């Protein structure tokens, strides 16, 4: 059973993460639910939530994207359905049909792709799939949210009669309009609309001559608006039909509400299911932003966060284009407590908060920004004491408040607790506060709790060194500039660099020496030793990094050399084979030449054939009988050699081509010299060289000795400038 207090959530800024997730959610209920996320109390529920988020993240990159699951809230509709004899408006039914369709599509999708989304499919399997709701509503309500004409037989008749009456109204009004317009009783506008009824625009002086009901006047009083008598009779009939239509629609809506009312609980489930999926989607989108993954969750008591980022810091730095430094932290049964020391502003508190917030996020069903090889187990409690803890409401000092907090720690601390304390022991007399802090630390240690604390107290550093299952750590500082490097180094305490930092900030040496004399020599020597060790550690870290880089480079070079050597060896063997074959052919050629010369001299065919057969037999005795398989293999090797040669030739050609193009580009990019009278020039694509006699704008006269030629300035290139 996980139990985490509101104070811990506040200390670790958990609400900032929830706020970010809430903003990503699409629905109002999803946004509210995201803000109410708390750590899970049950491990199965937690693992389901983590796998659901992880599966949703995978949908961003695979081809089976999860369908849209947005919806309009139907909370008011659910309230009305719960009230007997109440009925819903038409718009409400459209929202209910939409949510039902959305759920059905999602349920069918998750059933189809259960291999991709096993945990989400398992959740979907608990929700009933029914098309009755959508079908029932679609029978009555169209896609625009209007009641269909054929929703009931009575409504069909009423609307048919209404259309007929409207036709009669238009017909009678048209006749009256023509009649009175012909008599010249109407204004230029002829007609208007008053109280949603068509009226004649009668000139005031003729109003008594027009039969009908006066429905109003113009602002100036020059026009009287009259509904003709014949039209009025049909309008009353239309009013009666509209009343009947309204009554029939109410009856239909009541009937439809009663048909949907049995599905009240299912509609609640639908809304709950879709809002849960919305929160899962919000967590998945947030995980995508922070590069969150699901690390291995083990039963073994080990917390190992490799290359862990603080998500809030990471996103803030990303906006500012600044670097965020990851930390690697490990807590095991053999190293349960880490005491981080060193100067302020080195990143101690961030390291502390990173571990706490990531563990909290993970236990709340969120993915976290760590390396995939990371792993952790689940804590029953996470206790924190971080930041300014002065309680204004209770009028307690910082130290009193912290003591009260420590008392709570002592009551709750056990082997499944993670405690995180920033600036442990501060707020009181250094010696007395340090002694009490040491006692608390021993108590937490003996209870086998896991924890990280930050401190400046030497006695806590010494204690961490003495306890077998506790260890020191420090935030790495540059030994020359004393600038923080934001890297946590386990296994060694950190110096506060008090005097070094003071010296760097221009405090006079005299004052620093006086301060040194005021404290115990042992303390100074201890701090100085730690500072020296830390500097050495920093140097070793850099050297180690350089050596690793050199080793990697050497390994790569060695691999390259091996490949080159192998290729050269292979080529040598092939050339040797080729050389041997050529030598054999040369020998056979010489032998054949000798036989030919002998035959030329003695013309003895028998000797010729005998010599020739002898030579062939000798050659055949050297040959091995080659199988079809070996022949094919030999042919393949020959083809490979030919292909390699062809590729190499092509590479050389491409290289030459590139060089040529590069040379042309370089030539083109060279600033062109300004040509003057007397310069020796030639055409860009020609060989004959001449001298410039005359330059007129862009035209140049070139003298070639025997003849002159007039050409464009752009077509010439300089051979030799006039001396």
Summarize the structure.
Residues 335-520 form the DNA mismatch repair proteins mutS family domain. The chain is an alpha/beta fold and 723 residues long.
Task: Describe the protein.
It is a single chain. The protein has 723 residues and is α/β, with parallel strands linked by helices. It folds into four domains: 6-149 and 259-291, MutS, DNA mismatch repair protein, Chain A, domain 3 (Orthogonal Bundle); 162-248; 297-548, P-loop containing nucleotide triphosphate hydrolases (Rossmann fold); 680-720. It is 55% helix and 15% strand. It is built from 21 helices and 19 strands. Strands 10-11-12-8-13-14 form a six-stranded mixed beta sheet, with helices on both faces. β10 (381-385), α14 and β11 (417-421) form a beta-alpha-beta unit. α2 (14-24) crosses α11 (264-290), α4 packs across α11 (264-290) and α9 (153-182) runs antiparallel to α10 (229-260). The radius of gyration is 47 Å and the shape is extended. It starts with 5 loop residues before the first helix and ends with a strand. Residues 335-520 form the DNA mismatch repair proteins mutS family domain. Residues 540-560 are annotated as: Disordered. This is DNA mismatch repair protein MutS2.
């Amino acid at each position: 059973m996980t139990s985490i207090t509101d104070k811990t959530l506040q200390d670790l800024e958990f609400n900032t993460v929830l706020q970010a997730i809430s903003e990503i959610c699409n629905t109002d209920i999803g946004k509210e639910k995201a803000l109410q996320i708390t750590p899970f109390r049950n491990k199965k529920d937690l693992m389901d939530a983590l796998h659901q988020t992880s599966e949703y993240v995978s949908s961003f990159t695979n081809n089976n994207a999860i369908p849209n699951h947005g919806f309009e809230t139907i909370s008011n509709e659910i309230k009305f359905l719960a009230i007997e004899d109440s009925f819903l408006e038409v718009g409400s039914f459209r929202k209910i049909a939409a949510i039902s369709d959305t759920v059905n599509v999602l349920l069918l999708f998750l059933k189809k792709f259960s291999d991709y989304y096993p945990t989400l499919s398992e959740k979907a399997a608990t929700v009933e799939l029914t098309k009755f709701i959508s079908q029932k509503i679609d029978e009555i309500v169209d896609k625009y949210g209007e009641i269909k004409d054929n929703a009931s037989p009575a409504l069909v008749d009423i609307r048919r009669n209404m259309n007929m009456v409207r036709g009669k109204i238009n017909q009678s009004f048209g006749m009256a309009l023509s009649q009175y317009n012909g008599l010249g009783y109407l204004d230029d506008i002829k007609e208007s609309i008053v109280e949603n009824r068509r009226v004649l625009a009668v000139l005031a002086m003729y109003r008594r001559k027009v039969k009908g009901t006066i429905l109003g006047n113009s602002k100036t009083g020059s026009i009287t608006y009259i509904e003709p008598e014949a039209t009025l009779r049909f309008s009353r009939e239309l009013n009666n039909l509209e009343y009947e239509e309204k009554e029939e629609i109410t009856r239909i809506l009541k009937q439809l509400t009663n048909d949907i009312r049995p599905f009240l609980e299912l509609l609640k489930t639908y809304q709950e299911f879709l809002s849960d999926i919305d929160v899962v989607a919000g967590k998945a989108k947030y995980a995508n932003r922070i590069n969150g993954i699901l690390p291995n969750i083990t039963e073994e008591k080990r917390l190992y966060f490799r290359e862990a980022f603080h998500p809030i810091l990471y996103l803030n730095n990303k906006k500012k284009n600044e670097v965020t430094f990851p930390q690697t932290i490990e807590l095991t049964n053999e190293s349960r407590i880490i005491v981080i020391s060193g100067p302020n502003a080195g990143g101690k508190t961030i390291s502390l908060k990173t571990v706490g917030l990531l563990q909290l996020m993970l236990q709340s069903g969120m993915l976290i920004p760590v390396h995939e090889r990371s792993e952790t187990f689940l804590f029953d409690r996470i206790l924190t004491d971080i930041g300014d803890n002065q309680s204004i409401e209770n009028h307690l000092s910082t130290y009193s408040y912290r003591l009260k907090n420590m008392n709570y720690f002592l009551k709750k601390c056990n082997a499944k607790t993670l405690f995180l304390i920033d600036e442990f022991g501060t707020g009181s007399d250094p010696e007395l506060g340090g002694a009490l802090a040491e006692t608390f630390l021993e108590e937490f240690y003996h209870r086998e709790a896991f924890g990280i604390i930050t401190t400046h107290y030497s006695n806590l550093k010494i204690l961490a060194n003495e306890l077998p299952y506790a260890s020191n750590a420090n935030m790495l500082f540059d030994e020359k500039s004393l600038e923080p490097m934001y890297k946590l180094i386990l296994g060694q305490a950190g110096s506060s660099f008090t005097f070094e930092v003071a010296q760097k900030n221009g405090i006079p040496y005299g004052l620093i020496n006086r301060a040194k004399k005021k404290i115990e020599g042992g303390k100074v020597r201890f701090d100085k030793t730690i500072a020296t060790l830390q500097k050495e550690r920093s140097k070793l870290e850099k050297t180690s990094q350089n050596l690793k880089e050199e080793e990697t480079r050497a390994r790569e070079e060695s691999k390259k050399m091996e490949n080159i050597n192998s290729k050269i060896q292979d080529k040598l063997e092939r050339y040797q084979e080729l050389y041997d074959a050529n030598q054999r052919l040369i020998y056979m050629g010489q032998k054949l030449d000798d036989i030919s010369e002998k035959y030329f001299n003695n013309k003895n065919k028998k000797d010729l054939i005998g010599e020739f057969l002898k030579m062939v037999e000798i050659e055949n005795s050297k040959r091995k009988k080659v199988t079809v398989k070996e022949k094919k293999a030999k042919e393949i090797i020959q083809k490979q050699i030919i292909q390699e040669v062809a590729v190499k030739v092509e590479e050389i050609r491409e290289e030459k081509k590139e060089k040529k193009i590069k040379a042309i580009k370089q030539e083109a990019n060279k600033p062109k010299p300004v040509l003057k009278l007397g310069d020796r020039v030639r055409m860009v694509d020609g060989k004959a060289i001449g001298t410039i006699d005359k330059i007129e704008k862009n035209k140049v006269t070139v003298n070639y000795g025997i003849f002159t030629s007039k050409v464009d300035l752009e077509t010439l290139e300089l051979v030799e400038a006039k001396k």
